[in-house]
Every structure is written in C-alpha cells, then in structure tokens.
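Action item from last meeting closed. Structure (380 res):
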C-alpha cells in the first residue's frame, strides 16, 4: 500500500491482475459486432471473407472441347483398328480440330495428330482403337454449373479468383472489414513528422504499429489526433466514435501512473472487464466495454503494445472475422537461463540458431520500452 505523506497521490492500482489464460477467456466471451456485407469485384477479392456461399454460374468447360490437336470422329469407327489391321477414315468421317475447339455434333472422340497418317486423298489411317470421349474435355469436367465454389466465411485466396471468374462470378458479397479507431493519448506524445523533439516528448509510433497490425489482420483503421491528458477530452472522443467503429484502441494511459487516464475514463462511461495482465511485457493492458463496443487499453511502451496486441487484439479480430491468423511455431530451447518474475509469463525475444546440432533460441534485449530487439528477433 502506498502511503500519502502530506500530498495527494492519485494512482491507479492493479488490484486484480489476470493471467494470460484468464484474460483470453474474457476476450472469448466478448460479444462480437455484425459486420454486414458489401459487393465487390471478384478480381479485387483476395484476402476478403465470403459472406455467403458462392455457386458457379457456368460449367467449365461449358461445351465438349478437344483436349489436343488432331481429328474429331466417332469412336465406333475405330473399334476394330490395330497395327496389323488398320482402318481408313475417309474425309467425310472426320474433321480436323485444334485444342480447345468444340467437338462437332455427332462426334465423340479426338485422335491425336501424332497417331494418324494421311494419304494423298486426305484419307486417314488409324492403327489403334479409341473409346468414346477419349481426348475430350467434357462439359463440367472442371466445374459444374451450380457447384459450390467457395463456402461462406472462407478467406478468398489468390488461387480462388481464377476459379470465380471461370465460373462466371464477376462480383461477390464479402464481409465488411472491421473498423477500428486508434486514439493516442498523452501530453507528451508528438505525432510525426517532428523536426525537433523537446525533452520529455515521445514520438507516437504505437499508433502506426497497431494500425499496421490491424491492416495485416484484415481491418480498416483510423488514427485520431493526440488526445491530451484529460478525462473529459478522452470521454468525448470515445463516445462520439462508437457509432462509426467496431472497436477502439486507446494508446497509453492504462498503467498505474498519476496521469494515466484511460482506466478512469472507461470506468465512468463503461465497464472495465480487466486492468492488468500477469505478463511481461504487456502488464498494463486493459479491456472495457462501452455501449456494447470493445475498448482496448494498449500500453504505451512499444514492446508492451506489440505483444499485448499480438495476443489479445489479434484473437478478438479472429473472432470478428472468423478468419484464423496463422502463427508459425518452432520447438526449441533457450540457449541460456533467463530469470523471470515469479507468477508472470514473460515473452522472450530471440533469434534462432543451430548450436551443436540443436535448435536454440538466443535471447535478445528485454524490457517493455525496448523495441529494436523485436525487429531483430526471428521468434518470441
């Protein structure tokens, strides 16, 4: 307990820190917004999420097509052909055809060019038999009209766009991207570009960091101007933004300092679900709900902001979009002992190396305010 000797000390106190699992369980319990849908061109759909099942309008091919160059004829004409007893097709029993051309009415086979010979009268000698529809791409061989191409809630990959276009799908309905608002806070924060930094000023790089993560995860975002250390200013900005955004991220102001106003503000206009997580870096991370919208308190230190977003904000976005965000993992051990605070989960930044035929994670510089080691790391 902090005592007050003569002067008023007004600090937030972490009364009930959550473990990562407990915090994640609360994230999982949040109500998620309905995103709605929007129609876009199929050619612009890469990375978007289908809002409904998509069915083919055309078969592919939509006609019986030659699978190679040669002649089209009736398979029954060739049934008795062999090397010892070749058969001859007169020019009125076949037609020359190129790959992709429609099979003429009444014909059902293509004999490859290299398996026939012509005489001077353009009669064709055939030395083997062919079965019906041999060397023919029949209607619907690849795609059948009415076939389900892409189920609802699927992420449209780059290889799906040709499938959509081939199936006659020029436009598709996709989920709207989640919209997030990023609110940087603090009298000391300076938004770039800044020519001269005064003592005590800090460049706002967290807004860009969180914004680019949101963009990578399939969201749209906006960044406000810096909100000063004022409960009223922050309150007004949050309340005026709730209708236009699906969630809000408040940068800084969530620790236990005297001028950390995020938690105080959120307690006045909403419900704080937790304030503080037993993790390093990222302890000050908080979560509240205001008028049914999730409001994330992102710590100001860059490593804390990055890792808390990677854990909790990422999972929330996965739930909104129904789109899993792939995180690649590697099994290895630390190259040295790393002492950590008892009862806390610490995220170690590391590079990975093969040491004596064993994969080892080599720890890098730690600390919530150290961001360069995140850039230098290959694993955490």
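Sequence:
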């Amino acid at each position: 307990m902090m005592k007050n000797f003569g002067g008023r000390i007004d600090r937030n106190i972490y009364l009930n820190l959550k473990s990562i699992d407990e915090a994640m369980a609360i994230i999982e319990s949040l109500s998620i917004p309905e995103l709605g849908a929007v129609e876009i061109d199929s050619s612009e759909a890469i990375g978007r999420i289908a809002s409904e099942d998509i069915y083919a309008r055309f078969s592919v091919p939509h006609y019986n097509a030659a699978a190679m160059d040669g002649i089209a004829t009736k398979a029954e004409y060739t049934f008795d052909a062999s090397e010892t007893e070749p058969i001859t097709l007169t020019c009125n029993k076949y037609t020359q055809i190129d790959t992709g051309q429609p099979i003429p009415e009444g014909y059902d086979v293509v004999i490859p060019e290299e398996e026939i010979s012509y005489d001077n009268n353009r009669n064709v000698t055939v030395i083997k038999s062919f079965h019906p529809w041999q060397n023919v791409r029949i209607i619907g061989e690849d795609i059948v009209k009415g076939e389900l191409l892409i189920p609802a809630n699927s992420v449209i990959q780059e290889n799906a766009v040709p499938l959509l276009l081939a199936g006659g799908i020029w436009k598709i309905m996709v989920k709207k991207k989640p919209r997030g608002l990023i609110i940087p806070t603090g009298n000391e924060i300076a938004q770039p570009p800044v020519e001269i930094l005064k003592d005590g000023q800090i460049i706002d790089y967290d807004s860009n960091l969180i914004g680019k993560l949101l963009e990578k995860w399939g969201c749209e975002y906006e960044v406000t101007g810096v909100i000063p250390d004022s409960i009223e200013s922050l309150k007004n900005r949050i309340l005026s933004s709730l209708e236009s955004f699906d969630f809000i991220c408040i940068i800084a102001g969530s620790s236990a300092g005297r001028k950390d106003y995020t938690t105080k503000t959120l307690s006045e206009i909403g419900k704080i679900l937790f304030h503080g997580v037993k993790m390093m870096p990222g302890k000050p991370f908080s979560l509240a709900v205001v008028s049914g919208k999730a409001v994330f308190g992102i710590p100001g230190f860059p490593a804390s902001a990055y890792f808390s977003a990677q854990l909790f904000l990422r999972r929330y976005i996965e739930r909104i979009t129904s789109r899993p965000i792939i995180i690649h993992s590697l099994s290895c051990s630390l190259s040295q002992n790393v002492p950590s605070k008892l009862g806390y989960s610490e995220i170690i930044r590391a590079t990975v190396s093969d040491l004596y035929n064993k994969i080892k994670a080599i720890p890098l510089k730690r600390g919530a305010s150290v961001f360069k080691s995140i850039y230098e790391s290959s694993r955490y």
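Note appended to the action item: The two ends are 34 Å apart (CA to CA).
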